[in-house]
């Protein structure tokens, strides 16, 4: 027996009704929803994946669509479109907030002896699981520090 025949028998419908249902043309609502989905996807892709449903709704209304924010949110969820949050870089040093640290070496990065002049750096590394901070401290007499001095000088 054919799968269609078994399914029709289990559902209690005739095969002719099933074939008529399956081959029917799309309803006006389905056609509008399809066009809306295409418009939503186009706006979302044009934004680089950063627009959420409120901004997509505004763009659709400017394009002449009569649509509610809830409908756009539901359609975006059905399409699997989730806005990517764009985080602005925030500097840790702010002009005018507090005095800068004093320059104790007067921009002279040569060291007279080991363990006399050190420099350090703190770098923030964003990852998928959160932020990582990499701290480094360097004795300026070491050969690696000399390479850094030479690179900065040129």
Account of the protein in words:
- It is built from six helices and two strands, in the order H-H-H-H-H-E-E-H.
- Helix 4 crosses helix 5.
- The mean pLDDT is 84.
- A two-stranded antiparallel ribbon has the order 1-2.
- By secondary structure, the chain is α+β, with helices and mostly antiparallel strands.
Secondary structure layout plus pairing:
Blueprint: H1 3-11, H2 15-22, H3 28-46, H4 53-62, H5 69-79, E1 118-127, E2 130-139, H6 143-153
Antiparallel strand pairs: 1-2
Order of helices and strands: HHHHHEEH
Multimer state: single chain
- pLDDT average, as an integer? 84
Total number of strands: 2
Calculate the terminal CA-CA distance, rounded to whole Å: 82 Å
* Estimated radius of gyration: 32 Å
Shape: elongated
User: What's the story with the biggest beta sheet?
Assistant: 2 strands, antiparallel
Q: Helicity, in percent?
A: 40-55%
Structural class: alpha+beta
* Unreliable spans: none
Main features:
154 residues, alpha+beta, 6 helices, 2 strands, 44% helix
Nutshell version of this structure?
It contains 6 helices and 2 strands; from the N terminus they run H-H-H-H-H-E-E-H. By secondary structure, it is of the alpha+beta class.
């Amino acid at each position: 027996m054919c799968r269609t025949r078994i399914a029709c028998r289990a559902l209690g419908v005739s095969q002719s009704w099933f074939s008529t249902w399956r081959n029917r043309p799309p309803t006006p609502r389905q056609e509008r929803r399809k066009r809306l989905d295409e418009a939503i996807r186009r706006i979302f892709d044009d934004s680089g994946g950063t627009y959420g449903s409120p901004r997509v709704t505004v763009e659709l209304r400017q394009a002449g669509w009569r649509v509610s924010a809830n409908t756009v949110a539901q359609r975006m969820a059905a399409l699997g479109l989730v806005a990517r949050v764009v985080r602005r870089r925030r500097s840790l040093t702010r002009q005018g907030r507090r005095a800068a640290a004093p320059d104790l070496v007067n921009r002279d990065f040569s060291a007279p002896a080991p363990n006399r002049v050190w420099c350090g750096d703190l770098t923030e590394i964003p990852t998928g699981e959160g932020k990582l901070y990499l701290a480094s401290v360097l004795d300026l007499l070491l050969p690696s520090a000399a390479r850094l001095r030479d690179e900065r000088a040129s």
